[in-house]
Design goal:
By secondary structure, this protein is an alpha+beta fold. 46% of the residues lie in helices and 17% in strands. Pfam families: HGLS.
Length: 470
């Protein structure tokens, strides 16, 4: 039997989830088709420049999924499942205070971490856990009821967890076991047709629609599956032209005439889906829920901690100007002005100011004209090499997420704001707590990007035969 390595399992897992989700939410298929058309047109118009942040084949195949679980035990189990596909926890996101709506979850993202694995297949799953012990959202009585309800369900069968552990340990699985793993893992995220307890669901929905989607049903499911697009503004316009209602605006950085940074996201609004309910009188009947939506993303350059500090300041300044009534209340227009005032307009300048992460290639002509062979055995600064055009910056793609944008997507698809008692003190969660929950270290995204940049600088120094000072 043929052995399937992590990346092969991951690619097939993403493909099967995409097919399943397309059957469940047909508008997703429209989103994928429009995304593909946008990417093809963008490549035709921009040429090689269009692929600076990833090859067209990678971008077109790329997906990120989103799921929600209800407890630390479920979170640790899903970590085992994703480990089977070479997907590791990266980043900590606290959505509880990231928007005005009640979104009582903390999250991490499971994804490949090595550049070659990302290049083969970059599938990632943004995974949220209900903060069921946070008294701002849940009374002691409701906390106990949630513990009982969530503790009584099984999201991931033992056979799946055992196969996942084997795949994680051995770097993949042989044919028969690989097929069974894929079958069980895909089925674990399928929308269940089990009747939903109407009274219980509505009780949680009064707190948060996100809470009811997690703790009000007997299973988990794909909440959204997100294609990547090269021009999200074009995608937004095309979807609206097809009569599909999009959320009010694109989340994240604005469109402007400088380098794309971090992540821009939007989605079509959550659609009504037929579900079966069990009512208080014991009868069972049809109903509708609106919890799943179609998200799409455009990825930019990963920022250094210095760059992220600047980004946070620009977001705060945008908020300040909006509150002061500037820009006719249109966030993206105000943000564009802030970006133009504060952010360098070239990748080269981003690299020189150490605001973003890059790998570096050598321009042989610039090397010869500026240095000849004089660099060998000596020392030179990276800044000097960049300024003279010898070290050419190549952007490192941002592979992760923004808490405010994620919360903004969630909020835009909620029917109301829910409830929260801010007189209570919230439960403490951070990256260390999440590491304990998932049973393995949650990586800091900045450290992964820095490692990739450092490796490139070391290779640059070896190629030049010199010491490169950063």
């Amino acid at each position: 039997m043929s052995f399937r390595a992590h990346w092969q399992l991951r690619a097939e897992f993403a493909r099967r989830l995409s097919a399943m989700y397309g059957d469940e939410v047909p508008a997703y298929n429209t989103l994928v088709d429009v995304s593909t058309a946008v990417n093809e047109d963008h490549l035709r118009n921009k040429g090689a420049e269009a692929e600076r942040l990833g090859s067209i084949s990678r971008v077109t195949a790329e997906r990120h999924g989103a799921i929600r679980v209800g407890s630390p035990q479920e979170m640790s189990q899903v970590a085992r499942v994703f480990a089977a596909f070479g997907m590791h926890p990266v980043g900590f996101y606290d959505l509880r205070d990231a928007s005005k709506s009640s979104v009582p979850v903390v999250s991490t993202a499971f994804r490949p971490v090595e550049p070659d694995e990302l290049a083969k297949n970059p599938f990632r799953v943004f995974t949220s856990m209900l903060a069921a012990d946070d008294p701002r959202f849940f009374s002691p009585e409701l906390q106990e009821q949630l513990r009982d309800f969530i503790g009584a369900r099984t999201l991931f069968p033992e056979e799946l967890l055992e196969l996942a552990d084997q795949a994680a340990e051995h770097g993949g699985l042989e044919g028969g076991d690989a097929e069974r793993l894929l079958e069980l893992a895909t089925a674990a995220f399928k929308l269940s047709d089990d009747p939903v307890d109407y009274a219980w669901y509505k009780k949680l929905e009064a707190v948060s629609a996100v809470a009811s989607d997690i703790g009000g049903v007997t299973s988990t499911h794909i909440n959204h599956l997100t294609p990547r697009v090269l021009d999200i503004d074009d995608l937004y316009a095309r979807m609206e032209a097809q009569g599909i209602t999009m959320i009010d605006e694109i989340q994240g950085p604005p469109r402007w005439d400088g380098p794309d940074i971090l992540l821009r996201q939007t989605s079509f609004r959550a659609l009504s889906e037929d579900r079966i309910f069990r009512f208080e009188d014991g009868t069972v009947g049809p109903g509708e829920l609106r919890v799943r939506f179609g998200e799409v993303e455009q990825r930019g350059i990963a920022l250094t901690p210095t760059g992220r500090d600047l980004y946070d300041r620009m977001v705060a300044e945008t908020d300040r100007r909006l509150a002061a009534g500037e820009g006719n209340g249109v966030r993206v227009d105000v943000a564009r002005g802030v970006w133009e005032e504060n952010l360098p307009r070239t990748e080269k300048e981003l690299a020189l100011q150490k605001l973003a992460y890059f790998t570096f290639t050598v321009d042989g002509d610039a090397l010869g004209s500026h240095y000849g062979d004089s660099l060998r055995g000596g020392t030179v600064s990276l800044t000097e090499l960049i300024e003279k055009g010898v070290a050419v910056p190549e952007p490192i793609v941002y592979e992760d997420f923004l808490p405010r944008s994620a919360a903004g997507i969630f909020q835009s698809n909620l029917t109301d704001d829910g409830s929260r008692d801010d007189a209570q003190t919230g439960t403490d969660y951070d990256i260390d707590v999440m590491s304990t929950i998932v049973g393995r270290p949650v990586a800091d995204p900045a450290e992964l990007y820095q490692r990739q940049q450092d490796a490139s600088i070391a290779a640059l120094a070896e190629d030049l035969g010199t010491t490169v000072e950063v």
